[in-house]
Design goal:
homodimer; alpha+beta
């Protein structure tokens, strides 16, 4: 694989239900987590469900962070996907674990990128890649 | 694990660079993919990078779809995360593979939910769970 990024899948259990149902607090925590990861925030979209639960995504120049909560289970499913060498996705995860204070959590770290065996053969033009953190946006 | 959803990680290689750089086409494809999965779209956020690349997320009542493209590599990293029994994430992935026409793709299907061993012990109140597809939103 030609590795282009790291995708953390974080499961947090035993979080306080009232925190998991608070859209504003969750949005603030995800935005702060993006900053902890040294990511550049481009946009976000958060939604509160009835009777309970929050879903939201923060788009960053380096990919995205997302969260989906089940207050009734004290459970949150979080993704931190960053590409490039500058961002530090584990710092975002560490911050979220501190903020959500789960009694238990689990992290899978999955490399993202061009799968093998011969990525060199797949596209004809191959300019030098700029890490997204160094890209601008329109 | 108490399974609450399915998260597909789709890598697509050999896509047309001009398609991977077209924010409007990519946004339309992701929204159509959400419909194919029988998901309910709540919001979206898409961004065009300079000199190239698009990132975007569609928040659905059942979780989210996301995409990050590297036109210079003909590569796109896609996520389709749905919870509940009604949504059909593989249909979204199938549609995107048809729309992006990669020469090669790879899918990982990762179950998301409350990790074992004893999820029953973790929260005190446990009302009957409603699949998010049946939830309303505020």
């Amino acid at each position: 694989m030609r590795n282009l990024g790291t995708h953390l899948l974080l499961e947090m259990v035993g979080c306080k239900p009232e925190f998991l149902d608070n859209k504003e607090e969750i949005c603030s925590a995800l935005l702060r987590a993006a900053t902890k990861a040294r990511a550049t925030v481009l946009g976000n979209s958060f939604h509160k469900f009835s009777p309970q639960g929050v879903s939201g995504v923060v788009v960053i120049a380096e990919s995205h962070l997302s969260i989906h909560t089940w207050p009734e289970f004290g459970y949150a499913a979080v993704d931190v996907f960053t590409c490039g060498d500058r961002a530090m996705p584990h710092r975002a995860a560490d911050y979220l674990i501190e903020a959500f204070a789960p009694t238990r959590h689990e992290i899978k770290a999955i490399p993202r990128g061009i799968p093998g065996p011969n990525p060199e053969m797949m596209v004809s033009e191959r300019p030098t890649w700029s890490p997204p953190a160094e890209r601008g946006w329109m």
